[in-house]
Design brief:
Number of helices: 2
Shape: extended
Helix content: 10-25%
Structural class: alpha+beta
Oligomer: single chain
Radius of gyration: 23 Å
Number of strands: 9
Strand content: 25-35%
């Protein structure tokens, strides 16, 4: 039996089976990715010229940090050098840690005994951003503004 497009019913069924197989494969992949809980890395942020950003753990082990592009911009901010940090993500190797995306607030610093979210503020325009650099409005350099992660 042929359909209007000239395809047989068996070809249509095969195509549907293939699509169902792809859907099942995607669901299993998503489940597998979520089944590995993230880890938390704590230590002192070390920013040295010509070297990737790293955390020195309590055991004095250096772990190289990476993340999405906005997180890399934050990790490049020399004003954060020496802060105690807490990063959520996963190890990609024993000495390499991939921080979760910036929108998850996965990178925090400790200031005054409390965890703080890293933000940047423009006093002139009253605009907050989550990466260092010039203000989106006036183009003046933003100031580092560490905030309580529970505040809006």
């Amino acid at each position: 039996m042929e359909h209007a497009g000239g395809k047989t019913a068996s070809a249509t069924i095969e195509l549907m089976r293939f699509c169902l197989w792809l859907l099942a494969l995607g669901a299993v992949s998503a489940w597998a990715a979520d089944s590995h809980p993230g880890e938390t890395l704590r230590g002192k942020l070390v920013l040295n010229d010509g070297k990737p950003p790293a955390v020195e753990t309590a055991e004095h082990k250096l772990v190289i940090l990476d993340g999405d592009e906005p997180t890399r911009q934050v990790l490049g901010d020399r004003r954060l050098n020496g802060f105690d940090v807490q990063a959520k993500g996963r190890f990609t190797a024993p000495d390499r840690f991939l921080i979760d995306p910036i929108h998850t607030r996965a990178l925090l610093v400790r200031q005054g005994g409390k965890l703080r979210m890293i933000t940047y503020w423009c006093d002139l325009c009253s605009i907050r951003s989550f990466t260092p650099g010039p203000c989106a409005c006036c183009q003046r350099e933003t100031t580092l503004d560490l905030r309580d992660p529970d505040e809006p």
